[in-house]
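Hey, quick one: can you model this chain's 3D structure?
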Amino acid sequence: MAKHVARGDEVTIYVVTDSGYTDYAKKVIRDASIAHAEGVEAAAILGADLICGDCEALHVEYNFGLISSIKEIIDERQIDTVYTHWIDDVNQDHHRISQATFTAARHVPRLLMYRSNWYHSSTHFKGNFYVDTSDTVEKKIAAIKAHRSEYERVGEKWLQFTLNQNQNAGYIIEVPYAEAFEVIKYLVD
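Sure thing. Here's the predicted structure for all 189 residues.
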């Protein structure tokens, strides 16, 4: 995202949920208002516009409402490149958002998936499109750390996993840091 912003692209981040959630015993793990403030700060660091939905975290449903909310943003902002969660992400919200995005972005010329967490799936993430992010990795680190409540909850492993993943992708294309994406479609203009 920071690389797009640096090139002068308008970047929109759509967070479908309120980002607050509770555990099975209804203990608050992440407060929605705190998550929102952290998201606003992270988007500002990246130079992106943030749109927040109001779905309850961990309860996202793949339905017409979700597809329409994504499609409306794509149409209103004339978005030509969409990044979404990896379809085989084990987080149920990520999986359903990815499904809905495939439908909503069916007329968008570029659609790519990213791996956003370290959980194993029965399917292997097949990164086949790489972006050198060596010059924007510091912004990425700052944006991650802006999500203080989540960063404090999971500790350094979130940042370390992300940096290791980006270094490994960088090794493949022989740069210090890169992000890997799985291409659904990519029209070169």
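One thing worth noting: Residues 45 and 142 are 7 Å apart (CA to CA).
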